[in-house]
Amino acid sequence: MGVEHLGDFLREALFVVILIVSAILVPGLLVGLIVATFQAATQINEQTLSFLPRLVVTLLCVLFFGPWIILKLVEYTENLYKNIPFLIS
C-alpha cells in the first residue's frame, strides 16, 4: 500500500459524505416537493408554508440519523488511522 491507494481513501471519503448528506437532504426535498404540489394545487403562496415543514423534517432527520452518521464517520476515521502505517511504508 502506498501513495497509489490515496485515491481509494478519497473515493471512500466522498462516498461517506454523499451518503450522510443524502440521508438528511432527500427527506427535505421530498417534503418540499409535496408542499410545492399542494401550494400549486391550492394557489397558496405563503413562504413559511414551504419553509417550516422542510425545516422540521430536516431537524427530525438529524435527530433520527445522528447516531448512524456518527457511526459512519467513526468507522471511516478508524479505517483511515489503521492504514496510516501502510501508507507511510
UniProtKB/TrEMBL annotation:
Positions of transmembrane segments: 13-39, 51-71
UniProt keyword annotations, A-Z: Bacterial flagellum, Cell membrane, Cell projection, Cilium, Flagellum, Membrane, Transmembrane, Transmembrane helix
InterPro entries the record matches: Bac_export_3, FliQ
Subcellular location: Cell membrane; Bacterial flagellum basal body
Cellular component annotations (GO), alphabetically ordered: bacterial-type flagellum basal body; plasma membrane
One of the GO BP terms on file: bacterial-type flagellum assembly
Keyword set includes ATP-binding: no
Name of the protein in question: Flagellar biosynthetic protein FliQ
Name of the encoding gene: fliQ
